[in-house]
Design goal:
The chain is α/β, with parallel strands linked by helices and 292 residues long. The chain has helices spanning 76-83, 115-122, 140-151, 156-169, 185-197, 218-229, 242-248, 266-271, 276-285; strands at 38-47, 50-60, 65-69, 91-96, 99-100, 103-106, 109-112, 125-128, 203-207, 234-238, 251-256, 259-264. A hairpin with a 2-residue loop joins β4 and β5.
Length: 292
């Protein structure tokens, strides 16, 4: 038996948290990630009588890029929200670097962590939402540095220096003093990405980050995520952008009706899907000219 068989029953002990390790550089290569292993085991979630996640299991290695695709209502966003405990699971478990997310084992049962401990865990899990969720009364820079100052007790000077570096990374250093209302949708989403990076998270979650954008603004956000994919940070992305999934993912996961139908490399999933449901879906959403 793994850590738990169901949310309220367990006969084993919890895995010990892995020691926090930074990304290390190997001469002449991209950064090699040594943290950010995500393991999702038999996760179930229901809303009332509707089961939206039906025993989902998925592993993403440190520095991996997993892109989740599938029809609307397939459970993609719900799965993403369970990874940082915005949605509580009804069964199964999730670990990051061997540490349970949202729960601890006491005796032979799982108990939900206290709110302050859940919030502490979330500082290691950055999330970028469909809507930008920026504070309208704060500038771009103030949005980025708020969490490091409040949650990590960094000095304002240190947070400001890091915040400007992150805004520069997403191409917005010159808009540091602009308020959200003065920014385009794509610029706001790039600020949201900088904000998610500000806490130096082990993993980054993206929930359809371009769905609220005008078509001409989509690429500026996807280009930032493409660069992040090379950085050694573990990324899990829910998207309808199939070309992006093909270009960036190590693993493409196709979900339907609360289950993972199949997963594999972009070549496997887009060019040679095994399952009829996968083939049917892609035949409707991918243009004939789309090639691997």
């Amino acid at each position: 038996m793994s850590i738990i068989a169901a949310r309220k029953e367990n006969t084993t002990t919890a895995a010990q948290p892995a020691a926090k390790a930074p990304v290390r550089e190997v001469a002449g290569t991209a950064p090699v990630a040594t943290r950010g292993q995500v393991d999702i085991a038999n996760v179930r979630k229901s809303f009332g009588a509707t089961e939206v996640l039906k025993g989902v299991s998925l592993s993403v290695p440190p520095g991996g890029v997993a892109v989740i695709v599938g029809p609307s209502g397939s459970g993609k966003s719900t799965l993403l929200r369970t990874i940082n405990h915005l949605e509580k699971v009804d069964g199964g478990y999730i670990t990051i670097d061997g540490e349970l997310v949202g729960y601890e084992v006491r005796g032979n049962k799982l108990h939900e962590l206290r709110e302050k401990d859940i919030l502490k865990q979330r500082t290691h899990i950055g999330m970028v939402f469909q809507s930008f969720n920026l504070f309208p009364h704060l500038t771009a820079l103030e949005n980025v540095i708020e969490a490091p100052i409040v949650a990590q007790k960094r000095s304002k000077a240190e947070a400001r220096k890091r915040g400007l570096e992150l805004l520069d990374r997403v191409g917005l250093k010159d808009r540091a003093d602009a308020y959200p209302r003065q920014l385009s949708g794509g610029q706001q989403q790039r600020v949201a990405i900088a904000r998610a990076l500000a806490l130096d998270p082990k993993i980054l979650l993206f929930d359809e980050p371009t769905s609220a954008l005008d078509p001409e603004l989509v690429n500026e956000v996807l280009d930032v995520i493409r660069e992040l994919a090379k950085s050694g940070t573990t990324l899990i992305v829910v998207t309808h952008e199939m070309g992006f999934a093909r270009d960036v993912a190590d693993t493409v996961v196709f979900m339907d009706q609360g289950q993972i139908v199949e997963s594999g490399t972009p070549q496997d999933i887009f060019a040679n899907p095994r399952e009829e449901r996968t083939r049917s879906f892609f035949s409707k959403v991918i243009e004939p000219a789309f090639n691997i």
